[in-house]
Design a protein that fits this description.
- The complex is a heterodimer of chains A (574) and B (165).
- With 574 residues, chain A is of the alpha/beta class.
- Chain A is built from 20 helices and 17 strands.
- In chain A, 34% of the residues lie in helices and 14% in strands.
- Chain A has a 5-stranded mixed β-sheet, with helices on both faces. Chain A has a 4-stranded parallel β-sheet with strand order 11-10-13-14, with helices on both faces. Chain A has a 4-stranded mixed β-sheet with strand order 12-17-16-15, sandwiched between helices.
- In chain A, a hairpin with a 2-residue loop joins strand 1 and strand 2.
- Chain A starts with a strand and ends in a 10-residue tail after the last helix.
- The relative contact order of chain A is 0.12.
- Chain B is α+β, with helices and mostly antiparallel strands.
- In chain B, strands 2-1-3-4 form a 4-stranded mixed β-sheet, with helices on one face.
- In chain B, strand 3 and strand 4 form a beta hairpin.
- The longest helix of chain B has 14 residues.
- Classes of the chains: A alpha/beta (574), B alpha+beta (165).
């Protein structure tokens, strides 16, 4: 048990464990201290000086995010001195910030903007020199505009937390800027496109490379049939962009809203999540029976696939050959759906709505180019809905279009860490032993970074592991390589918590993140949807019956391989 | 002198650097020391050298590069046979050493911090060499040239060029 410390914050007595920071203690006293560089679970460097407070026993103002409490300490968070200091800090930051707020993607969700308003700053008090650097648009997924960057280092911390370390601070003094080694474009760095830097950026320095314009263009082209499909986790997060509580499932409104953009159809990507499971479970059983390289790694996360190709090319044979649900869907639409509906694939424009920035890279990969024409993030969809003047919150629920409407609960949980594993286990175990009826695999649920479990099915022991966050992925791969651990099936999601916390999800400020566990609240919406679904095993889905009977034959058939599987190749980066 | 735009480190240099890394890798904060040693071995810190260090320490290239660009003592460019150092300290600066630097950059057609393609000269700036009485001062290798004017620059450079020829 930790020693407890008594202190007063703005006169309010607080008792907290020793080692607690003033910032944490203040939250217990329901006092908000403004922060910029601090971000819970990600960054704690005490460099921006926004959170300065007066504390007895300290010389001058101290940074509350890193300063530990002491017995008898009296803290003042709202004195003239604190406010003046914060105001000055903001004015200095603004002196070299490109203030293109009107057209900035983060307008009204910008933390710098919110603080500037609160502290009544004069944004032109210091006429500083400008950087005028061209934005880095070298990758298909992220744009970095360093003229808007405030050097808070949150993106660097996010990248470091992922153990990717593609970016860092470069130079010194006024010239400090964030970039890749040797100031090379991001596309030549180890970046895998997870986009965690974007959701952790307090301002508009980082954003996804938008594909909205192309989608509008396709929608207004009368020769094109535009089809949208939405990834499992988007239903659990899109509402946040319309001021709904975190964890609200807005599937019905989402479908209704997209339909009002006038596409030809709105489909449910959970269907190809189910299809992925059919293919992946069959592949797993086949690997177990034929002594192929084990463990098998999931391949639905494109950032993880890129990470393996770059960092662990020797593990490529362990990656499932299944395309991700996004790519399976695109491929099916351009083959099966076009054949059935007599549409020339050239005239079909496929838009996926995904929680992810790496998916933008994935749909441009050589092996699968053309399956999906544009991948837009949850944020981009929200912007399109707003631009179209659709009153999202007031919409009546609507349902996805057939034949890709009905999916199982297994498909829905793809969006949370452990979801793909659980979905695969439900079907794989049943394929191996028809009497195996367990549907809940609790050990692989939850937002723990690494989860392990062992199951006995039809005389086979199946050892599984689930990791989210590339730092944990690295730990798992290293333990497999060293022989310390032996697994049969491993699920990896690059973003901590899985797709619900993806790099394309609505950005939330530190203030929100401190009151709500985003990952858990969003994941809960998906597990609730799973529980409420009558069909919870992919193999039992009527859509699977249709696809296999009508077109694909059986899982891992020659045709399925042609359309639904892919290859990987080593990719050496600098 | 042969043109050396591409990195041309020797196996011997690499061996030396790897020995330094091996020796100090367990010491916390060893990166600075290794970078200093590496610059001693190669004369500068190109990407190839920084890669060896990053791999040797199991850290990212962006972290190494961040440290290299933070400290002005580290150079990303090779140094010339003759190293020109222009004092931009207070005394020299008020006496117009910035004009000397401009003239040198013009004469040699390189920027401060760079090296001429023939490898003969490199220009750097420094802060006070302790000869303020002679301001403005330029050092070439170990020689100090004081009370200079931009017009005198060409003659001094020619002296070194003639030596070479």
């Amino acid at each position: 048990m930790n020693k407890m410390v008594n202190l007063k914050i703005n006169g309010i007595p607080v008792t907290v464990p020793e080692g607690t920071t003033i910032l944490q203690a203040a939250r217990q006293a329901h006092i908000e201290i403004p922060t910029l560089c601090f971000l819970k679970d990600v960054s704690r460097v005490g460099s921006c000086r926004m959170c300065v407070v007066e504390a007895t026993g300290a010389r001058g103002l101290v940074a509350a995010c890193v300063y530990p409490v002491a017995e008898g300490m009296e803290v003042r968070t709202n004195t003239d001195k604190c406010r003046q200091s914060r105001k000055m800090t903001l004015e200095l930051i603004l002196s070299k910030h490109k203030k293109k707020c009107l057209s900035c993607e983060r307008n009204r969700s910008c933390e710098l903007q919110r603080l500037s308003l609160g502290y009544d700053v004069d944004e032109d008090r210091f006429k500083g020199e400008d950087f005028n650097l061209p934005p880095d648009e070298s990758t298909p997924y992220i744009i970095r505009d360093n003229d808007k960057c405030i050097n808070c280092m949150r993106c660097v911390a996010a990248c470091k937390k992922q153990h990717v370390n593609a970016i860092g601070p470069i130079g010194r003094g006024f010239n400090v800027h964030i970039g890749s080694a040797f100031d090379r474009p991001l596309s030549e760095s180890p970046c895998v496109g997870c986009g965690q830097c974007i959701v952790d950026c307090p301002v508009g320095a980082l954003s996804e490379k938008s594909n909205i314009d192309e989608v509008w263009e396709a929608l207004s082209d009368s020769t094109k049939k535009v089809i949208f499909f939405t990834a499992p986790s988007v239903r659990a997060t899109l509402g946040e962009a319309f001021r709904m509580p975190v964890g609200t499932n807005v599937e019905g409104k989402m479908v209704a809203a997209i339909r009002r953009l006038n596409p030809h159809a709105v489909f449910n990507m959970d269907v190809t999540a189910d299809l992925t499971i059919m293919e992946e479970a069959s592949e797993l059983i086949n690997r177990i029976k034929t002594n192929k390289p084990m463990p098998m790694f999931t391949s639905c996360c494109p950032a993880w696939v890129k990470f393996v190709e770059q960092t662990y090319p020797e593990m490529i044979p362990n990656l499932s050959t299944c395309k991700s649900p996004q790519q399976m869907f695109g491929a099916l639409l351009k083959t099966y759906w076009c054949e059935k509906n007599g549409v020339d694939p050239k005239n079909l424009y496929v838009v996926s709505v995904i929680p992810c920035t790496a998916k933008k890279y994935e749909c441009g990969r050589e092996e699968m180019k053309g399956d999906v024409d544009a991948a837009i993030t949850t944020r981009e969809l929200a912007r399109m809905i707003k631009t179209a003047g659709i009153k999202f919150a007031e919409l009546e629920d609507e349902e996805f279009d057939n034949p890709f409407a009905i999916a199982t609960g297994a498909g829905a949980i793809f969006g949370a860490t452990g979801g793909v594993m659980e979905a695969a286990l439900r079907t794989a175990a049943h394929m191996m032993d028809g009497s195996f009826e367990v549907l809940d695999f609790f050990a692989v649920r939850g937002s723990n970074p690494i989860k392990e479990a062992t199951y006995l099915v039809a005389g086979h022991t199946i050892r599984v592991a689930v990791a989210s966050g590339l730092d944990n992925a690295r730990k798992i791969v290293e333990s497999i390589k060293s022989g310390e651990k032996k697994y049969d099936f491993v699920e990896i999601m690059s973003c901590p918590g899985g797709c619900v916390n993806g790099g394309g999800q609505p950005t939330r400020s530190d203030a929100v993140r401190n009151s709500v566990e985003l990952k858990e609240a969003r994941a809960k919406a998906l597990y609730t949807a799973d529980c409420g679904n009558e069909i919870r095993r992919s193999a039992d889905s009527p859509a699977m019956d249709l696809l296999y009977n009508d077109y694909l034959g059986f899982p891992n058939s020659h045709k399925a391989h042609e359309i639904l599987h892919t290859t990987y190749k080593p990719n050496k980066i600098i | 002198m042969k043109e050396c735009k591409a990195f041309c480190g020797t196996a011997e240099q690499e061996q030396k650097l790897k020995a330094v890394i091996e020796e100090s890798r367990s010491t916390p904060g060893c990166l600075m020391h290794i970078l200093q040693e590496a610059q001693g071995i190669y004369g500068f810190l190109p990407i190839e050298v920084q890669k060896i260090i990053a791999e040797g320490l199991g850290i990212s290239l962006s972290e190494v590069y961040g440290v290299v660009t933070f400290y002005s003592q580290f150079s990303l460019n090779p140094k010339g046979k003759h190293r020109i150092s222009v004092c931009l300290g207070t005394a020299c600066y008020v006496k117009g050493s910035d004009k000397l630097l401009e003239e040198l950059e013009k004469q040699l057609n390189i920027k401060c911090g760079e090296c001429t393609p023939d490898g003969l000269f490199s220009i750097d700036s420094c802060r006070c060499v302790g000869a303020c009485g002679l301001a403005p001062v330029v050092m070439i290798d170990e020689d100090v040239y004081g009370k200079l004017t931009p017009e005198m620059v060409k003659g001094i450079l020619d002296k070194y060029r003639e030596e070479q020829a």
